[in-house]
Amino acid sequence: MIEKTILGPPGCGKTHTNTLLVKQCIEDGISPERIACVSFTRKAAQESKERVCRDLGVSENSLPFFQTLHSMAFRTGDYKKEDVIRGKDLWTVGGATGIAFNGKETSEIESDFDVIGISKGDQYLNVYQLGRNKRLGLDESFRLFGSYHLNWVEFLRLVKAYESYKKANNKVDFTDMIEVFINRNQPIDIDALFVDEAQDLSTLQWDMIEVLRQKPKIKYFTGDDDQAIMGFQGADVGRFMSATKDKQVLAHSYRLPKQPWHEAQRIVSRIFNREQKVWNPKTENGLVRHHQSLWDVPLHEGDWTIMCRTNFILNGYANMLRDDGIVFSRNGKMSISSKTYYAVKDWQKLVEGNLITIKELRNIYSLMSSNVGFKRGFGSRSKMMLSLEDDTEISYEDATEAMGLLVPKDKEWNIALDKLDTDTQVYILSALKRGENLESPRIKLSTIHGMKGGENENIVVIPDLSPAAYQNYLSNPDTEHRIYYVAVTRSKNTLHFIEPQTNRYYQI
After folding, report:
1. Do the domain assignments include residue 503?
2. pLDDT string in tens for the chain (508-residue length)
3. What's this model's pTM, rounded to 2 decimal places?
């Protein structure tokens, strides 16, 4: 019998360690089909599966239990996709109650759910689901997680309508699936259980783990209580720390250099409720700098991630970069859309005498006006494109003679693509003047929560706090300490801090 908790400080190789342990299980004769590795997020689950497949030479089909807890509950419950409640179902509930849904979810932004753009219906549902994940009653859920502008009577009415709708239409949500799994109490027949990022599991998910852990003789729980920052989603770090008596600390970081490591140690020492750990940085020294402005940071070279506590604060810095013609990505999306980027690029190719495909021409036309008889946009002959395959290559002459193109060859892209608004045109022109790479930006913007599990050569941390986050800082300082500990431990080389712009900030 093996029951062990593996505490992995930032960059210490938790996933690699899990892979080695899975390998050991297979070498000891355990079939991959009888090994479960469950994770909090789909990203983590997929990363574990891909690494095991790559390093051990097994197929994904041989790892049926490498998945999220929600996926496992879905699979073992024999649900179908159409059984799961979706946005259109919520709109029906909203219509029946007069409480609007817009399908947005709260994420890492604010502790009180007071987020611009999130409807009242979504806020009520978030409060309800958070309470369910923490195994709380309705009154306690509303008291703890309901914002000042939410109404108790309205909350009860929405919850009742939501549950009635699910029952009447045989619908379930993912919380239902986990509750059903727990209530059935039918453990999966496995020999080894690995729980990754275990510090992020909610109370409800830990109850599911208690069912899963009944049969296997080998059980590993991997995580880091110092990086437990998902409390807004119901994470129960106490359950993680009490999962086993046997604990092992991974003692060497493959990510963090010495100077950023010292900053991390200074922040983590402020956490009151934590497991003491001794771990070491890389041999490289690294660099830590404090600046009064973002423009004091050498963003002109290298790869960078700029992190803020909330999306609201991040918006301001995104606008600063746009105003200066700097291209960046945010949550995987480019500041200049790929559609726009490729239209600019392909128009230039076309007028320089190169061939482009019909698919590329269609994209160009989507940003042009349709004006028959004028030397701009395109005319009715563009319908000719409908009969051609996407990969058919054409020249500028082909486009003008047979595809309806009306724009003269000597016109610049900002004239040709006349549907682009002025702000976008100015932004692209400024970016091109700076020599920015429009296709693969070096700079990424992210909330701290969004970078959890990520890393970059150069990290910028902005300690400004929104009003709600500041109140959380005052009332629950351990949470904010953990959040900024995660922030500073993303660095592989340099770490930069920007002096706060408000009177509400985390004291680095």
Report:
1. no
2. 899 999 999 999 998 899 899 999 999 999 999 999 998 788 878 888 888 888 888 888 888 899 999 999 998 888 999 999 998 999 999 999 999 887 654 443 333 333 445 788 899 999 999 999 999 999 999 998 887 789 999 999 999 999 999 999 999 999 999 999 999 999 999 999 999 999 999 999 999 999 999 999 999 999 999 999 988 888 999 999 999 999 999 999 999 999 999 999 999 999 999 999 999 999 999 999 999 999 999 998 899 999 999 998 999 999 999 999 999 999 888 999 888 989 999 999 999 999 999 999 989 989 988 775 555 667 776 777 777 888 999 899 988 888 888 888 888 888 889 899 999 999 998 988 888 887 788 999 999 999 998 999 999 999 999 888 898 899 999 999 999 999 999 999 999 999 998 899 999 8
3. 0.86
**Residue 223 sits in the same domain as residue 274:** no
50 in the same domain as 103: no
What DSSP string runs through 442-484? SEEEEETGGGTT--EEEEEEE-B--HHHHHHHHH-HHHHHHHH
Cα 457 to its chain centre, rounded Å, is: 19
How far is the C-alpha of 238 from the C-alpha of 298, rounded, in Å? 41
CA-to-CA distance for 508 and 484, rounded, in angstroms? 8
Cα dihedral across residues 240, 246, 248, 249: positive or negative: positive
Number of domains observed in the structure of the chain: 4
How many alpha carbons lie under 13 Å from residue 223 in its C-beta half-sphere?
A: 30
Side-by-side strand order, sheet with 218-223: 65-68, 35-39, 192-195, 218-223, 2-7, 247-249
65 backbone dihedrals φ, ψ, rounded to 5°: -110, 20
Place of tokens 């759910």: 113
Last residue of a domain, one of 417, 434, 451: 434
DSSP assignments along 419-437, one per residue = TS-HHHHHHHHHHHHHT--
CATH number at residue 327: 3.40.50.300
